[in-house]
Amino acid sequence: MARFSPGDGVTVRWSFPPGHIRTPYYIRGKSGEVAQVLDSFANPEELAFGRDGLPKQPLYRVRFAQNRVWPQYSGMVGDTIDVELYEHWLEREGAQ
Amino acid sequence: MIRNESSVLDHYQAMELAVSALLIEKGYFTEEDMVAEINAMEKRTPEIGAAVVARAWVDAEFKERLIEDGTAACESIGLDMGPTRLMVVESTNEVHNVIVCTLCSCFPRMLMGIPPDWYKSENYRSRVVREPRAVLKEFGTVLPDGISVRVHDNTADMRYLVLPRRPDGTEGMSQEELAKLVTRNSMIGVAIVEAP
Predict the structure, then answer these.
(1) Does the beta carbon of B148 lie under 8 angstroms from any beta carbon of chain A?
(2) Which of the residues of B are catalytic?
(3) Complex confidence, ipTM
(4) pLDDT tens, residue by residue, B35-47
(5) Which of A39, A73, A83 sits opposite B153 (nearest CB)?
(6) Alpha carbons B171 and B152: distance in angstroms, whole number
(7) What is the distance between the alpha carbons of residues B74 and A50, in angstroms, rounded to a whole number?
(8) How many folded domains does chain A comprise?
(9) What are B164-192's pLDDT values in tens digits?
(10) Residue A84 maps to a domain
(11) Is the pTM of this model over 0.80?
(12) Chain A: residue whose CA lies nearest to B125
């Protein structure tokens, strides 16, 4: 059962664990909004070491305003970036 | 297998040779399997994706299914989608989509084959996320004011395909004619589709 729903404000964990991590550095610590709840998938951070990756992790498409990701962003105000993030990388915005 | 390599292997070339030799020796797959997979990969070209785009332009019901569940819609017209899942994002008069994988080279290979070298370059991967409009401009793509740019970093289990906006003035064209207008770059989102 996915913990977040479309429209929820979320913040990506500011965390730097070793290993095979699919969360890009530039998005850690940034806040955005859940655009879509995708399916659940085996955790790639576990699969990379030959483990089963279970329980499956809900995967989200999270939308970030570019000017909140890059303080110097020179494009337009409405520009966004969508990043796929697994649930264990997300916290409710404002809850940290 | 015959390989076209310089006499000095770099770290990753040496690792790739060693790992594939080990996997073959341990019986996970044969040399023939590997050749067959490489051949299958090379047979996939952007024309497959272009046919999907053209179909979506002329068939509203297909387009709806494609956006709802890209994998199922493509499988329904006989395309083998392999283990990855397809997400189709539609560019409109309000939003222009562009795809990247900042971590490696995730790409909708089932619909477009092997990604171009620039797609895998550090330059593209690092810049398109923070200055997409500058990168688009380098591809000759300047968007009118009022169109937002939405970058999609496909780093996990979905693969993204951009459904480009159908150009004005193509109302009378057939699906086959339209497919010829759709380029690989337009399905990545660094270009738009132009009317002939």
Answers:
(1) yes
(2) 101, 104-106
(3) 0.93
(4) 998 888 888 999 9
(5) A83
(6) 29
(7) 31
(8) 1
(9) 999 999 999 999 999 999 999 999 999 99
(10) yes
(11) yes
(12) A24
